[in-house]
Amino acid sequence: MKRRLIALTILSLAINIVYGQSQDTIRLKNPSFEDYPRVSSAPSGWLDCGFPEETEPDVQPSPNNEFKVQKPANHGYTYLGMVVRDNDTWESVGQKLSQPLRKGQCYSFQIDLARSSTYISQTKTTGKDANYNTPAKLRIYGGFGYCDKKFLLGESSMVINYNWKRYVFKFEPVDDYSYIILEAFYQTPTLFPYNGNILLDNASGIAPIPCDEEVVAEVTPPAQAEDKASSPPPTPKPEVVESTPPPKVPDAPKAIPPAPPEKKPVVAQPTPAPKKEPVVFQGKEIGELKEGTTIQVNKLFFEANKSTIRNESLPTLNEIYSFLVSNRKVVVEIGGHTNNLPAPDMRAKLSKERAEEVAKYLEGKGISRTRLQTRGYGSSKPIADNSTRQGRQKNQRVDIKVLRID
Asked: 167, CA 20 to 30 Å: which among 13, 132, 206, 223?
């Protein structure tokens, strides 16, 4: 009797533990994006968070071969297709969470991502059909309402793979967020918008994890050039196949002394490193960084007649931060500019203060102030006509200038 009571107690504790864990995991509505295949309509359970007057994301694969996206789903029957456009707009969806993400708690989230080699749609800049097949990335936000991108929870690397790949994210929310937003976005930093796509399928629940737990961002190997495999189990095999050729080079001529084969990888490995140094800012490849290169920063907004940075500017500020982290030897000047509406003495003051606010943000994220110089140009360097509203908006800007490379 006593043994039976102990066994029942252990069983009860186990059930409570499992039940408690399932309660802690935040479940998404329609995580596999299942719905009738259709264009310009977000899947059930998800709300379109895109730009006004732009089409909504699509439930793929394409019905009637529209858009020519015919990739099989990795889970279920359908998946979500989102695009970024060359008119500086992009697609996103959101939903309310079953329970909020909690400040101070860390979470793990997984989702299958891929891109389609063909995604034919009309481009707004020319009015002609274009193939939206350039790689994009996934950004995930937490917020306090539908489509409220209050905090960037995580972002993927560029999704270049045509086969499905499992991506893992670690969330560290700084507040209690009740909503989640999934957003397609350009290569960052972004100077020139382009046409690209990203496919999403089989999202997991959002599971609490210890904050010191490491996560692997991508748990499947790099995709092959062909668009075939759709199920996760076979995908680890290409990784083994791709990693074997380097050792086979020295193994083949075993009769030859080992010294020559060893020299080949030693010479070959260091050479790609400089080429892989990030030399892009705002999406434009600028080759070797040169002193004097000036890059206009888009989507950096301030309160009217103030130096207060608006919340929607945070993604852009984080792009500048990423650029500086990736190019640690670069010293830059942050230049503030205004249009000609403020009084002349106000223009210089305001442009300098805005540049300072950007520098303070970057310094707060860990960029050394010795790498950040600021200058206020007022309205002395217009890039557009101040007589139009659009021109004045363009002139009210921030530029990043490469001063030197230490």
From this structure: 132
